[in-house]
Write a structure and sequence with these properties.
alpha/beta; 13 strands; about 45% helix; globular; 2 domains; single chain; binds pyridoxal-5'-phosphate; Aspartate Aminotransferase, domain 2; Aspartate Aminotransferase, domain 1; about 15% strand; eight-stranded mixed sheet
């Protein structure tokens, strides 16, 4: 038994930190027989294991470099590959000094917060939003203002009033955080018109936009929408863009990237030097070699077809088994359905659903004020095809039994 009184020693941040709500639910999802619609995991059945093994030849060829410490801003060949590959989405080939490779987008978020936030500064987030972002931001002392999302994404028309009132109330607003494509959890995509408005608003109120886009490559239906980064024709430096290999390749690589104004990136690089010196060069080199061999280009259409079928199977299950007052939109891509069963208590439903052998994530996990009780997020990418209908059936039965 430790004899240290940790409560008397810990920082305020450590005293106030709470476990991630999703990770707290995970122990239930591991119960044998439970179908998990909970975590936002890709399908391991389609991980390109053989192609990664092939790519590991880079260790034999370039091991002397790859096993060494690397540059803090990332493995140069990978940065170059990403800049070229992403050019159509970014509107141009971004320069090396605009990009930083991070250990997951999660690290990019943390670094961005560390260079922009003083304790008590405010971030405008979507309601609902990604709990991991709330967590990273809280760790850096953030306060929040939340703006609703509808089927076209963040309700940007509400922003001016929120910003003006927030400033009157003493909020030092630093940036607006938006998950632009197939948002986690709502599945919605910010429309092009709203993206343009958001840029204007950011300029008018002198704010930064953090465009988080880990799902953007996974579109199953509908037309793609330009990134906010590419719409910033003046190259104002106001937009910081993040993407990751986690959802489109393999989260175990922990390889992601963030793009923004070189001055900002330079500061993030300096902070990163104090955090981990550099992201794993082994992981970056593996991802690079996998991409260089042309595998990513083949893999994306494969998972798009695979996940699109899974989305349809989950929706078919919902149509068949969920109560007729359940509200949801069909996501055009990404990983999630966002369901509302008006008046239901999703925390109580969660335990009932576990009894019935299915797991999801409860609505309040996605709101900074803990609202959203009658919402739930279901992930359709992880469960196996035959589990999607069965899981929907179990969810429907749990709702009835509540
Ligand atoms: C919207 C969003 N941003 C960022 C992340 C973090 O991704 P990474 O695995 O790259 O850290 C996630 C993961 O679920 C996410 O949903």
């Amino acid at each position: 038994m430790s004899s240290v009184n940790w409560n008397a020693r810990l920082s305020d941040i450590a005293l106030n930190v709470k476990p991630s709500p999703i990770r707290a639910l995970m122990k239930y999802t591991k119960t044998p027989g439970v179908i998990s619609f909970a975590g936002g995991n890709p399908d391991p059945a389609v991980f390109p294991v053989a192609e990664f093994s092939e790519a590991s030849a880079i260790l034999a060829r370039e091991g002397k470099d790859v096993l060494q410490y690397g540059a803090t801003d990332g493995y140069a060949p990978l940065k170059d590959y990403i800049a070229k590959w992403m050019a159509p989405r970014m509107g141009r080939e971004t320069k090396p000094e605009e990009m930083l490779i991070t250990t997951g987008s999660q690290e990019g978020m943390d670094l961005l917060c560390s260079v922009l936030l003083n304790d008590g500064d405010t971030i405008i987030v979507e309601g609902p939003t990604y709990p991991g972002a709330i967590h990273a931001m809280r760790n850096r002392g953030a306060r929040f203002l939340s703006v609703p999302c509808d089927k076209d994404g963040l309700c940007v028309d509400m922003l001016p009033a929120v910003i003006e009132q927030g400033r009157k109330d003493g909020h030092r607003i630093k940036f607006i955080y938006t998950i632009v494509n197939f948002q986690n959890p709502s599945g919605s995509t910010l429309s092009e018109g709203r993206r343009a408005k958001l840029l204007d608003i950011a300029e008018k109120y002198d704010l930064i936009i953090f465009e988080d886009d880990p799902y953007g490559h996974l579109r199953y239906t509908g037309n793609s929408v330009p990134t906010i980064f590419s719409m910033d024709k003046k190259e104002s430096g106001r937009v910081v863009y993040a993407c990751s290999f986690s959802k489109i390749l393999a989260p175990g690589t922990r390889v992601a990237w963030i793009v923004g104004d070189p001055e900002l990136m330079q500061k993030m690089i300096m902070i990163k030097q104090g955090t981990n010196l550099c992201s794993s060069v082994v992981a970056q080199a593996l991802v690079y070699e996998y991409c260089r061999l042309g595998h990513l280009e083949g893999f994306l259409p494969k998972i798009i077809a695979h996940y699109s079928k899974k989305r349809d199977a989950m929706e078919a299950g919902f149509k068949k088994y969920l109560p007729s007052n359940t509200i949801y939109n069909t996501p055009e891509g990404g990983f999630f359905f966002w369901l509302q069963v008006p008046g239901i208590d999703s925390n109580a439903l969660f335990m009932k659903a576990i009894e019935h052998g299915v797991a999801f994530v409860t609505g309040p996990s996605f709101f900074v004020d803990g609202s959203g009780l009658d919402f739930m997020r279901t992930c359709f990418t992880f469960a196996q095809p035959e589990e999607l209908e069965e899981g929907a059936k179990r969810l429907g039965a749990a709702i009835k039994a509540l």
